[in-house]
Design brief:
Helices cover 81% and strands 0% of the residues. It is mainly alpha-helical. Helix 1 runs antiparallel to helix 2. It is rod-shaped and about 90 Å long. It starts with a helix and ends in an 8-residue tail after the last helix.
Length: 184
């Protein structure tokens, strides 16, 4: 009788360990997939930027610095692989794109151009997709971290050396900046 109790207890512990391990693997893979989705949207943005810059270049001779900043920020964001540096580079690119959109508003010819409007709309839609992908990624990282830290799953996470993931964080200056609206 005691042998059956011991066998049942060991079987239950093995079943729990397998279940816990599989949940951790699933969560880890969900985080990796979410990061891949961010990469897909970032690639889409990288592909749209040169087209927008080329479309507005001829009209914006006096705004050369803005265009150069966008191109430089794009190159930096594309070449960065480290997550904290990537987040900072992406925030810089987003900021330079916002500057470009403000400049585009100053040129009536550009505002009327179907090509520029379409590219601008595509970039705005892509920015929204990136924001949603970042939010999903951070939510999945939080769920994964919780799973790795709660008892008894943390025993399995530590035994099999499950690594933690970093959150995709906005740059500190970006978070503290107060948006301004000019209504004139």
């Amino acid at each position: 009788m005691i042998a059956w109790i011991v066998i049942a207890f060991v079987s239950l512990c093995c079943f729990w360990a397998i279940l816990s391990y599989n949940r951790l693997v699933t969560s880890r893979n969900d985080v990796r997939n979410a990061w891949s989705q961010i990469d897909v949207q970032l690639k889409r943005r990288y592909d749209l930027i040169p087209n927008l810059v080329a479309a507005v270049k001829g009209y914006m001779q006096h705004e050369k610095d803005v265009l150069e900043n966008v191109v430089r920020a794009r190159a930096e964001a594309m070449s960065t692989a480290n997550l904290p540096k990537k987040a900072t580079a992406e925030e810089s690119l987003t900021s330079s794109l916002k500057s470009l959109f403000v400049i585009i508003e100053k040129y009536p010819v550009l505002k009327a151009s179907d090509n520029v409007l379409r590219l601008q709309e595509d970039l705005v839609a892509t920015e929204n997709r990136i924001a949603f992908a970042r939010q999903l990624y951070n939510d999945l990282v939080a769920n994964y971290q919780i799973r790795c830290e709660i008892f008894p799953d943390m025993m399995i996470a530590q035994t099999f050396a499950f690594q933690s993931f970093e959150y995709f964080r906005a740059d500190i200056t970006e978070k503290k900046a107060t948006p301004s609206a000019e209504l004139s």
